[in-house]
Amino acid sequence: MKKYLLLLLALSCGYSLANSVSSFSDMANNKINLTPEQLAREPELLAQMLLSSLHRNDLKGVALLRPIYQKQAFQDPVLSLWIKAALARKEGDLSRAIDLYRRLISASPELFSARLQLAMALFDNKQYTAAEYQFDKLNTEVKLPLLQQTIAFYKGQLIRQEQWDIDGSLTYLNEPNINNSPKDNQVENWTFSTEKEKAQGFGYMLSADKKRLINDHFFALTVIQADGKYYWNNKKYNEFNAKIGFGGGFQNVKNTVKLTPFVEQAFYAGGERGSPQGTLHRYFNAVGVNFSVEHWLNSNWKTVLATEYSKLNYIDRNELDGNSAFAALSLFYLPNSKQYWMLGANYHRKSTRKKVYQYRRPAVRIAWGQEWGLGISTRLEMHYAWRHYYAPMREISDFAPSFYKVRQKNNEFGGSLSVWHRGIHLWGITPKITWNYHRVKSNNPLYQVNKNQILLTLTKTF
C-alpha cells in the first residue's frame, strides 16, 4: 500500500484529528483529507497513525483513532494492549494503566516509548522506587537529547520526593536439614548423634525508609527494617530481627551518599535446645552505623559502596560479644534496558571475646539479570567466599577429634537462579521462583554443607 505523509484537517463526523499528524515517509508533503469511512478502508495507514500517536504520547489522537480501529476485522494484540494502557493513563486510572503497560512490556520489551510511559505512570502513581528502576533502564538506551532531558527531569523530581518507600516480601521455606547435620555421623572413630531436622514455614521481610529534604541536595533519613522466619512444624528455629536508624545524606542525579546510625535487636527461639513452642527470646542487640555511596559513572555504568560497623552484645552467650565490620564494592553494567551485569567483592570480619568464634570472610560475587521474550525474566547470582577462623576449638592436649585442634577453614560457594513473569502482578505482588544452592567445604567435617532449595517468593513495593 502506498505510504503517506498525512495531515487530517477534519473528519465528516465533526471532530478534528489535527493532533494526530505524523510523518510516515519522506515522500513529498502532500496533504490528504480522509473521512473515518475512508480511513477504515486503509488498515495499514490507520495502524501507522496509531503507532505514531502512541510513540509521541499523543493521547488525544489515540482516543480519536481508537473507535475506527476497533471496527477493523484484524486488530494487532500488542497495538490493542498499548491503546488500552494509554487511554487508562489518560483517564487517570493509573493502577490499571500500570498493569496494562507491564503486560505490554512483558510481551514486547523493545518498546522504548511504552517503557517510558510506564515509568511516567509509576511516577504519577507515587510508586517512586519502581519508577526510578524503569528510568534507569531507559537511560541506558536513550540517545535523543530531548528524551535525555525528559528522563533527567523525572530523575531530578524523584530525588525530591519525601514519601515513605516501603518494600515487603514473603518466601515459602522448605528446609530438609535445618540444623546442618553432617551426612556422615561417624568421623575418626567419633560418633556424633545429631540427626537431620526438617522444617517448613515462611520467611518475611518489611522495610520502610523516608527522606526529609533539608535543601535541594541534603536530606534527613529514617530507616525501619524487620525480618524473620517462622516454621510451623519446627518452631524452635523461629527468629525475628528489627532495626531502626536515623541519619542523613546527600544526593543529586548521579550520586547518593547515606550515613545512618542504627540500633538492632534480634530474637531467637533457641535452635536445637530451644522451646518446641517457638517462644522467642532476646538473642543479641547491636549499635552501629551504615555508610553507602552510589555513583553513576555514565548512563550504563554504576558503582555502589556499602559498609557497616556494629558492636554486638549477646544476652546469654557473652563469649560472642564483640564487633562486626563489613564492606562491599559492586560494579554494575547495564548495556540496555533488558540486561544488567554485576561484579562485586566484599569483606566481613567478626571479632569476639573468645577467639575461637572470631573470623574473617572475603568473598567475590557476580550476577546477571535478563529480560527474555514471552515475558520471562531471570536473575543468576554466584558467589565464592573464604571463611577463616582465628583459633582452633580445642587445645592440642585435649581429648577431642583432631579437626577440632586446628583452625577451621571453610570454602563457601553459593548460587541462585530466580525466574518470574513480568506480566504477572496480583495486587502489585510479583511471584518469583528461586533455586538456591549452598556448598561449604571445610577442614572440619561437621561443618560440611551441600544444600539445594526451591523457594517461592512474593514481593511488593508500596
How many domains, in number, for the residues? Answer: 2
Tally of contiguous helical segments? 8
Strand element count: 18
CATH class of the largest domain: Mainly Beta
- Spatial strand arrangement across the major sheet: 3-6-7-8-9-10-11-12-13-14-15-16-17-18
The proportion of strand residues reads: 35-45%
Radius of gyration: 29 Å
Q: What is the CATH topology classification name of the largest domain?
A: Porin
CATH architecture of the largest domain: Beta Barrel
CATH superfamily of the largest domain: monomeric porin ompg
* Low-confidence parts: 1-31
**Structural class based on helices, strands and sheet pairing:** alpha+beta
Kindly state the mean pLDDT as a whole number?
A: 85
Query: Given the C-alpha coordinates, what overall shape results?
Result: elongated
